[in-house]
Amino acid sequence: MLLHIPQVLNTQEVAEFRRRLDAADWTDGRETVGHQGAKVKRNVQLSETSPLKVELGREVLAALRRTPLFFAAALPRKILPPRFNRYSGGGEYGFHIDGAVMSIGAEEHLRSDISCTLFLNDPAEYDGGRLIISDTYGEHAVAKPAGDAVIYPSSSLHRVEPVTRGARMASFFWVQSLVRDDSQRRTLFELDTSIQKLTIDGADEDVLLQLTGVYHNLLRRWSET
Ligand code: NI
Prior knowledge:
With 225 residues, the protein is α+β, with helices and mostly antiparallel strands. It has helices at 11-22, 35-40, 51-65, 68-74, 182-200, 205-222, and strands at 3-5, 27-28, 41-42, 44-45, 76-79, 83-88, 92-96, 101-104, 108-111, 114-119, 127-128, 131-135, 138-142, 149-153, 157-160, 163-165, 167-177. Helix 5 runs antiparallel to helix 6 (205-222). The longest helix is centred in the C-terminal third of the chain and has 19 residues, at 182-200.
């Protein structure tokens, strides 16, 4: 499931992120990929050891905690500390699949079920730079307003088009979900969304109770903790 999550960061927060990132030291983005990725990746990132990366990453996590749509769709068990990248001057990231298992610190690991991009520039500020995601229904080209995020299955082949004017900055991170399978996660998300809508519409209490029970019993069956 490819899902747009609007306004994870508000306008003021984006401006503050941008101010701090504009003054940052960037390093070669190939620092964090394997051999295959390094052949097609041409961008810069905040270093893994950068205090700014750690600090802004915490702010992204705090913003996600205030975003119910993210939780309903991702059902996160673990989130990799967010990273930050910047594409300009023709920089791009060719087709690749994200690594399946990632390290968090020295001892902990995360299985990447969901890939997330949080946009920090509006699409009008750059040319190119769309995130192209290839799935069983074809290719999707994604560019969202600053502060918005997209999430998509980490199993998808994807790329970032060359940025030929301006600069495109983003935060990116991965989620290990309580529910590993994308179609099961989607079913739960659709059920959850329907229950919320029926609640707002004042549907029959007994029916809502039963549907809520179905949701939790499916989550119990499908989740791994
Ligand atoms: Ni990727």
